[in-house]
Structure formats: C-alpha cells, structure tokens
Amino acid sequence: MRLTMVGTGYVGLVTGVCFSNTGNDVLCLDVDPRKIEKLKKGVCPIYEPGLTELMEHNIEAGRLKFTLDKAEAYRDAQMIFICVGTPTGENGQTDLKYVEQAADDIGHVMKSLGPGQERKIVVVKSTVPVGTTMMVKQRIAAIVGPSIAFGVADNPEFLKEGAAIDDFNKPDRVVVGVEDEATGKAFKELYDPFVRNGHPIYLMDIPSAEMVKYASNNFLATKISFINEMANLCEAYGADINRVREGMCSDKRIGHAFLYPGLGYGGSCFPKDTLACIMMGDKSGIEAKLSKSVHEVNQRQRDRFFDKITGHFKPQGGLAGKTLAFWGLAFKPRTDDIREAPALTLMRKAIGYGALVRGYDPVANDNVRAELSGPAVSIEEDMYECVKGTDALVVSTDWDEFKSPDFARLGKLMKHKVIFDGRNLYRPSTMHEAGFWHYSVGRATVKQG
Ligand SMILES: NC(=O)c1ccc[n+]([C@@H]2O[C@H](COP(=O)([O-])OP(=O)(O)OC[C@H]3O[C@@H](n4cnc5c(N)ncnc54)[C@H](O)[C@@H]3O)[C@@H](O)[C@H]2O)c1
Asked: Is any ligand 1 atom within 6 A of the Cβ of residue 134?
C-alpha cells in the first residue's frame, strides 16, 4: 500500500519505518525542515533502540522516503496517518491545532486532485479527545465538497518509547475505529503481518476507539499514582513498599506491571492524557474524579521527593550553594524524550533554591542542553564525572547502568555521600554498609552518624 505519515516524531517515524518494513511504500511528511534534512541523510532525529538500523534498511530498499512537500505527501497516498502532537493547551484542553492543520492540508491537496481520484483513508493516529476524528472528516469534507469520497478512521497507538519497535511489530492488540467495511478491510490487510502472533485487531466505532487510548493510559497512570500513595503511607507507618509490592503483586488479579513507586509519571502521554480525561469529564458534566486525584497525587509525588532533598540540607543552611548530581534526565530509560521529565522538574526547583546542578543521561544530554542552560547547570558525558565534588546524587531514572554503580568510587568522587534514590534502585542494607545516606520512596531512610 502507499502510505503517508504526517509527522515524524516518536509515533510517526516508528509507524512509518515499521510499515515500510513489511513492504509498503511509505512517505513521511514533517513541517520541521531540520528533521526532514536529517532523515533524508539517513540520520534518525530521535533515540529509539533499533530504529536507525530498520530505517536505514528500508531507505536502502527504496520503500521509505521523507518530504517537506505536502502536495507530494498527500497526492498518491491510499492511507494517510495523522501522527502529529496533541499537547495540552493553555486551559488544560487538548490543543488540536496540529491535527486541524493536517486535516486542512489534506483537504486542499485532495481538492486540487479533483473528482475521480482514488479513494483515500485519512487515519487519526494521534491521541485525541472523542469526536476529533469526526471533526477531521467534517473539515476535509467542507474543503473538498460532496464529489470527492474518502474514508476516515481512528487507530490509536500503544507503543512505549524505549521499546517502540517491538511494541509496534508485536502489538498486544490493534484498535481501529471505522465507519465502513471497506476501511476496516484495508486495516486488516495492513496490520495482518503484525498480528501473526494471534493477537487481535479490534474493529469498532470511532468514539470507542478514541476512548480506548485514554482509558488505557489513565488506567496505567492510576496504577502509578496508587502505588506512590501506598509508598507514602509505608513511609508514614514504617512499612517497606518493596515488601508490600511482593505481597500484593503476586496476586494474579493484581500483577506487577506499572506498580513501581518513584517520582511519578512523566513523558508526553500520561500527564496530558490524564488531563484530557479530566477536561472531557468537566465538559460533559461527568466529573472525572479519579483522574483528578491521579493527576494530583502525581504532582505531589515530585514535591514530596523534593522535600526530602531540602529537608536533608536544612540543618546545613539549605540548598543554596550546594551541588546536586542527577543521573537519568529523560522521563524514563531508553529514550531521549525529556517532555515532563521528573528530573527536569527537580533540577529547576533546585536551581530556584540556589543550588548548582550537574546532569548525566546516556542518550538525552543534547535535548537537556537545549532546554536547560545557564551558569547553574552543567551536563556531563560520563556518570562518574557528573558526581565529582557534589553534595548529593539524585537518581531519577532506572537505566541499567545506574543499577550497580561502583559505590566506593562514588564515595571518593562525591563531596558528601548522599543519594536520593527516586527509583528505589539500591538496597538500604548496601547503602548502610557503603556509608551513604540514602533516601528512597516508601522505605526507611538510611542515615549515617
Ligand atoms: N510518544 C509516545 O510514546 C506516544 C505513544 C502513543 C501515542 N502517542 C500520541 O501520538 C501523537 C504524536 O506523538 P509524538 O510523541 O510522536 O509527537 P512528536 O512531537 O514527537 O512528533 C510530532 C511531529 O509532528 C510534526 N508536525 C506537526 N504539525 C505537522 C503538520 N501539519 N504536518 C506534518 N508534520 C507536522 C512535528 O514537527 C513533529 O515532528 C500524540 O497525540 C501522542 O499523544 C505518543
């Protein structure tokens, strides 16, 4: 099939690359000339394990191309996937301006092709509030008029950054909202190579498909806020959240996934999708009370952790003039995506209190440099260089390379042996023996004499 991806971000690029890998002709459009310039040279603009290799392979095979030209992108496509960002707008509403722009662009190109053109299917892959796909249909119809037929669909994406290729190639399920049989058939053909594992393609109505994505993300966000709330209670009552997790999660009805306490969720999806549910609730008069609490607990989690940092330094005159090292700057491991990353929130707060911050991330350093600069910030290329002369280390993501560091070396490099372990990576007993102060989440603090 001839496919066009609108947007070459984390979703559009992965989707385009994976569809080209099963033999489709894929053209990826973006409005960002720097991204397209890189992609045309075979350089991947984002970090995603395995993406570069797969991209190079399909570029070489002639199945994967990139363009800035909207007319070229939309002219020959049989299916057009809108994969643009849907960020939270100023008042908490989902900002749909990129989706609207894409719909208008598609409409104008279709109009220029005139009646008799091959029927196109316009697919919303971005995460959007219920009703958005029909809004896209109406916008395009208003431009092209009644003589040009086209189909629409909603096909939410469930990939996780850091494991996106695997998630896309072997999805637990594919969800597609359609209005007609022909569109459903086209999706079944397109996704057939991806569901050889027997996992289902669910064809459903468009509003339900749009809602599946929000329901899924809100549920996962709820699990994270739930375990964080339990961790906070553990701290208050002298219980250990790790023991509680073991006892609780071995229940088959509960399971282990997304029940790790920490700094709360970040990234470009959970925060905005929780807010979108809250807004959908407020708009409809069905208050999304649970989503509101989930969001509030998440915001509070970072503040609580920061309070541990300020609390530690209070007897020493506060954070002003202290230097903090941060390991893990993206919102989670194996991605360079720093949107809503807890580390950045904590770094900004620390700077606000007069501290100096040093950061290290295996793949996100350049993105952080573009976002956070000034005399109080230095970003290092080595995790041990990062801790040199610092008063404390804050571990903010659970990259494998942070899991078993050389504590003796750390102790020698740091000015003070203090670790704020935002991901519960280290055992309190190990920390005690190594002579570190150790603050974690939902467990007792290790203090040194
Ligand atoms: N990132 C994830 O892990 C993930 C997972 C599932 C779903 N989603 C959803 O997918 C959507 C895209 O997310 P993302 O993380 O890939 O976003 P992103 O910001 O990484 O990429 C969006 C891209 O769209 C481009 N763009 C904007 N307007 C355009 C236009 N009119 N024509 C062509 N290109 C245009 C931007 O330049 C950008 O490169 C969002 O709705 C998001 O919620 C994201």
From this structure: no
